[in-house]
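Example record for the data management plan.
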Amino acid sequence: MIVKKLERNWKRACFKAIFAYLHLRAGAPVPPDWSEGRRKVLFMRPDGIGDAMVSTPLLRGITAISPDLRLHAIGSPANAPFLRRLDYLERVYVFDKRDRGAIVRLGASLHRERYDVVIDPRLNERSMTGLILMLAARAPLRMGVAGRDVDSDLTVSVPPGEGHITETLAGFAVPFGLDPAGIDWRPTLPLTEPERERADGYWAKVSGTTASRRLLINISAGESPRKWPEARFVEIIDAARSARPDLAIAIVGAPPEWESVRDVAKATGGFAVPTPSLGDLTAIVATSDVVFTPDTCVVHIAAAFGRPTVAMYLKGTSLRWGAFGVAGANLESADGTLLSLPTESVLTSLLPLLESPATADRS
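Corresponding structural encoding:
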């Protein structure tokens, strides 16, 4: 207990000393005219794939301000492959917190670039790592979320908001002179024609025709509390097929959970679709008609392509992270795991979505 208290006090002292130095150097900077000069912006997103996806409307809006504005991003090993698919990002750094030397190498790269502004949109508490990277960027403008014990360390504080995560991200648009009301806050994701054709090929194997209503079910959820039992997915698929016998059902999951995907498909007569890359996953979701999934990046892919979605969330998380701008339902468990979410609740929301005709245009 004493050791932890000393560690907290030491970190607090370091935060104060470093940012006192920053304030002395930068004074009280004012946001520049972003449309003039070659401005360099650093966006910190070393977290999940879904976090990166919901950030795309903001990133796209910033880069549209001026052709001379250069946007770089810090990603994680998980989301860097996705960030590199965004053609408006000039550079993507990868920060792996498991690599002890990563912060030194990345810090040196950021120091050489010298940015005009660094944006940290993360909602978690500040960390020494984040502080060091922000300092290394040498940006006179430092934007972050208020209320995380960092307000005095930032030059621009954005309210966290109480609603959807897009509410928070919209706050970062204002310092750039952007009108949040004029931005479509649904994610925008790249998809190549070969990826789409490959997905259509899988659907053809499922149904043999493009006329069938397509149901995409993702069984993977990453963390244990967000996992739903295989037997319940089987129950949902059986009920959906009973309600609509012509339904085409594709089942996906993360590559490490491929055996579970195959087991559910075998038990239900569904079709197990391999998704070795994020592009493959994006394509199979984009070419579906209805999506059922736990809280993962699949929710945001479905939102990007306007696919009606029934998504399962842990108690108290759907308001912030639910599917945005699409029909369907964001369902919550009664406690801290999805085990308390019954199949009846899912079917009540899912079955009405299956009654509509197949989507005529899945582009």
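Summary line stored alongside the record: The two ends are 57 Å apart (CA to CA).
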